[in-house]
């Protein structure tokens, strides 16, 4: 009698098998960039609290070529995070029923992106006018 | 029959994850643009991020609340997502991983609050 040798489906690199899984892993990976940006801001707040010279050192550091490149990668991944967040939103929200019809997915996604564009524009406008002292 | 009535604390972490995810989806990219690229590109004057103006910003309650919400919610969003993705890359997400992920966010929360409250 031979020993039973059940087939176990190998799971290493499972997400490389399908473009859908690759996309899933990339949008989960945006979390590292959100984390990096949060830590960058936290470092800024800590430097600000410790005085003017530390704050100026922080600003010089974040203006360096390497940090601009890293921040550009963070910027792109933030965009991608926002896009996928609203793309997935129809599946993460409870069903929204309007006059007996379930609100369809593209409408939720587009509404989310429109709100993001409006909120971002408003933020830029507020900071712009604050900085210009209007 | 024994019924497990122990409450789970998952909704709290999920709520922080959701709030951070929504906030970063709404204004995350614009925030990075403003804080990192607006001055080099000449959209904002360099004085916008001078010590005097940034320190002044933290003197307002709204300024403090804004910075606190951004940093803390982004942190909790990211660690929750990373923790739950460990399984996908074949790492068993046990108590150690939980402590490391949520511990980082917790320490970040305390540090942010401490620094903001120190600036009176």
Automatic annotation (TrEMBL), chain A:
Segments crossing the lipid bilayer: 30-49, 61-83, 103-131
Keywords assigned by UniProt, alphabetized = Cell membrane, Membrane, Transmembrane, Transmembrane helix
A cellular component term, taken from the record's GO annotations: membrane
SUPFAM superfamilies, alphabetized: Fumarate reductase respiratory complex transmembrane subunits
Protein name in UniProt: Fumarate reductase subunit C
UniProtKB/TrEMBL annotation, chain B:
Transmembrane segments in this chain: where? 12-41, 61-79, 99-119
**HAMAP family, alphabetized:** Fumarate_red_D
Task: Tell me one Pfam family matched here.
Answer: Fumarate_red_D
What is the official name of this protein in its record? Fumarate reductase subunit FrdD
The UniProt keyword set, sorted, is: Cell membrane, Membrane, Transmembrane, Transmembrane helix
What InterPro entries does the record point to? Fumarate_red_D, SQR/QFR_C/D
Q: Name one GO cellular component term.
A: membrane
Q: Which Gene3D superfamilies match?
A: Fumarate reductase/succinate dehydrogenase, transmembrane subunit
Q: Which GO terms describe its biological process?
A: fumarate metabolic process
Species this protein is from? Iodobacter fluviatilis
